[in-house]
Predict the 3D structure of the following.
Amino acid sequence: MMKQKFIVIISTVLISFCFSCNQRASNKDSGDSKKTISQLEDGSILLKLEEAICYNDLTNPSSNTAEWKFVVPKPGRYNVWLSSATKDTNNLDYIKPVKISLLDNSLERNPECDKIIRNSSDVTYPFFRTDSYMGSFYIQESGEYNIQVISEKVTSKEALDKNQLPALNTRLMSIILIPLTR
């Protein structure tokens, strides 16, 4: 008799646990699902950090990750630029190289100030917008893709809004994919 009660209690706990996990998973999916980003009129694909799904680790920020889902209407080679807001254009202050992954390919580089975008509406004083060339990806087929960036400069909009992070001299703003044309 005692064994039967024990089995019933364990079964009930397991069933309720499984149900609650499914509820959390479906809530996470609906809350985290972002729109698919499309190509702009000039052919580039702008992946803003505020539109990404971000994972922040306050104890080990070098594993902070941002992910986007985007559509490539035309296959080909795309140059990859990382856009940052910085107070010092001589030192972007990235501690570790930034890793950008698409399919089975990845680019890993410590961003440098390759371009300074003057009078950018993306930033306000005392910040400047700088773009860093990271390399290029060849995309063989049109379709929907996921891209991932890993860097200590990935900060979610919620973390910035809640002031959970120390004052930053540089922050990652976006990834820009620019098609190469012949």
Observations:
- The longest strand covers residues 128-139.
- The two ends are 80 Å apart (CA to CA).
- The chain has a mean pLDDT of 81.
